Amino acid sequence: AMCATCLVPTTGRKKKALNGWLLPIGTHQIRSAQTGSTHRPPPSRDTSHRKMELRERRREEGKETSMVAPDEPVCVSTTVECKGKDQLDGQLSPFGSDTPRAKNTSFFVSVGTFKKPLGIFRALGEAAMSKAKLGFVRTAIAGFMAGMYISAGGLFSVSVGGGMPEIAKTDPGVQRLAFAAVFPVGLLLCAVSGAELWTGNTVKMMTGILNGRVTVYDVVFNWSVAWTFNFFGSLFFAYFLVYLAGILDQQPYRTFITNLAESKIDLLPGQAILRGIGANWLVCLATTLGTSAQSVTGKMLGIWFPITAFVAIGYEHSVANMFLVPVGLMYGARGGFTARSFFEFIGLNLLPVTFGNLIGGAIFVSGLYHLYLGKIPFPTDGVGEVVKGKQGETDAPQKSKAGHVTVAVEKLQHDSRRYSS
């Protein structure tokens, strides 16, 4: 059996802590099923002083984590020796419960509930590597689905916000908030389902190329295919699932969508670019927040508020406009959906907004964080070295001389029921 807090075996030779102290906060003990003996770590001397010193040390290394409840046992860093079968629950194992291990495997465990900036952008770089391997067909299918998902969110917004003409006259802020609050459904579908949304891919692929994980060809290929099939998916949804289905035939929705489409086309090119920068800046920040979360609920909360903000403000999102403007043209904006009105939309709105979205995601988010974090170290062939960057020691796997594999598992709270013999 092992102590639930510090993971020190209660029988046999005790293991030394790795790069830190064991902090017994509160009373913790576990009874051995074989011997009936109880292991209780000795009380720490001058605990408050050690806590302060540890926090200062971790702050200097850029590894300060979120606070935990006072009654929660915390093990800042420790080592567990696993011989033969796993002594850890599969959900907590970085390798998974079915993955074979070496006879001696050690785990470096740090406490927390979300990824920090270094971990977020490492995950984005790894996502870029995965996207570069998708190929044309899979990228096209995923891009088509993303266009439909964003269109579904746009239709939801029109159905809610477009049905408030009187409120829009007296309280326009309320109407704009109602329109914006339901739009994130589309991005949530993209984030959870793995669809290829071009605007979100700007930060992922740029992070990959800045850190040497993908090539320029990979970036151009992914962006061009995703953007094109986002457009196809949006047009398909607008024509078959909205226009032919007669969803917006009735007033006030018909007037609302035509006015919305005309207002977007009437923007000056410079305004469209600047609004595009603001939109994808917030969209890509929402992407980073969603990436930091460890659960679907966390991803929802991280994505929802930045997306609601950019829609309520009035920024321009290229993929959303791929649905909103064409469906407005189909219902009579600019004289109807003609070749002239369609190319006016592309030249006066879609291309300037796309350029602004590119700047907002690739430069305002990925570029600035690259300057802040520096080049992010990645594991090499599954086993690399722990490298110190601007944010301190990384969580890359490390192979020691003795053949032990040390894996950093960020932000993992201990549960005494999961550590038993």
UniProtKB/TrEMBL annotation:
Pfam families: Form_Nir_trans (PF01226). Its main location: membrane. The chain crosses the membrane at residues 136-157, 177-198, 219-248, 301-325, 345-369. Residues 28-68 are annotated as: Disordered. It comes from the Eukaryota. GO terms for cellular component: plasma membrane. Homopentamer. Keywords: Membrane, Transmembrane, Transmembrane helix. It is found in: Cell membrane. It catalyses: pyruvate(out) + H(+)(out) = pyruvate(in) + H(+)(in); acetate(out) + H(+)(out) = acetate(in) + H(+)(in); formate(in) + H(+)(in) = formate(out) + H(+)(out); (S)-lactate(in) + H(+)(in) = (S)-lactate(out) + H(+)(out). Residues 46-64 have a biased composition (Basic and acidic residues). This is Formate/nitrite transporter. It comes from Lotharella oceanica. GO terms for molecular function: formate transmembrane transporter activity. Belongs to the FNT transporter (TC 1.A.16) family. Signal peptide: none annotated. Residues 29-38 have a biased composition (Polar residues). It is a multi-pass membrane protein.
